[in-house]
Every structure is written in C-alpha cells, then in structure tokens.
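Notes from hallway chat w/ T.B., transcribed later so I don't forget. T.B. wanted the structure written out for a chain they're using in a teaching module, and asked if we could keep both sequence and structure tokens in one place. Agreed to drop them here.
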Amino acid sequence: MIKIIMPLLLGTFLFGSLPVPQQFRADFNQTVINTDNNQTLHYSGHVAIKVPNRAKWVYSRPVPKTICLLEDRAWVIEPELEQATLYRLDKAIPLLAILENAKKIDTGHYTARYNGVEYDLRVDEKEKLKAVEYTDELGNRVILLFSGIDTSPIDSTETECTIPREYDVIDGRF
C-alpha cells in the first residue's frame, strides 16, 4: 500500500492564524520508525507543490525515486527498477484537511486529528510549515521535515514528470 503525505492539496485556507501557501517548494527529510523493532528508514529529497492538485516529490536517498501527484493519481517512477507505477490516492493523507483542523498548542506548535490519527505540526518563526509527525495505521512513527522553504511562483513544468519509453508501466490502481 502506498501512503503519501499530500501537501499538493494546500489552498488559501487558514490553520489557526497561519496562511497556507498556494505553492510550496522545499527540501525534505522523512524518517519512518518501526515502533515494534525500532528499525529506522531515512528518506530525503526535494518537493514542489502547486495548488490545486499537483506535486512532485523527488527522492534522492536512499535510492532515486520520483512521485508525481495529480488530482487523485500518483505516478511512482523508479529508475533502478526501470518502472513507473500508477496508483489511486484514496488512501493518501489529505494535508489540507489536517491543516484545517489544526489547533494551536503554543508558539510554533499545532496539533490536529483526522480520521482517528493525531498529527503534530510545527512551523518556523516565519509561520511556514516545517514539520509533520504522526503514527500511521501500521504503528510506524513518521516524521517529515521541510527546509529551504520557498513559496514563490512555481512554473507548472516543475511538477511535470516524464516516464522514459523503455520503462515498464504498471497500473496499480486496482
């Protein structure tokens, strides 16, 4: 099952008193900790998000991978496997809904509950989202950190993905 945090759903809504940007680009570090055996996976890369429905997550570590989000679909492009897989996003985490439900705890700290899951949100001194933390349905603790946040206009080409002709294409929507 694919589980993707979807900042692509960001809009002009407010969470608490903080504006949610129409576009967002940043570097990210994602840590997934298995709470049963304390095994930890680390991912890093760059993300570009453009409201209302586009995002491109480019993973550089541990292996190159690109995830392109468009409306209710996600393409996962894996160069090492020379394959691209199409998924439905009905299981994705709707970050906008989480942000809309966020309640301020103290300066720079918000919490939200969505579909029975508690999300911990952190913002920097400029009120830009810098971290999302939660425990997924498998009991994994997930920490997503953003850095180098830029909310200047994003050209739609930054969120486009190209699948090389020689790649296998798999339809994982079913």
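Follow-up for T.B.: The chain has a mean pLDDT of 82. Might be a good example for the class.
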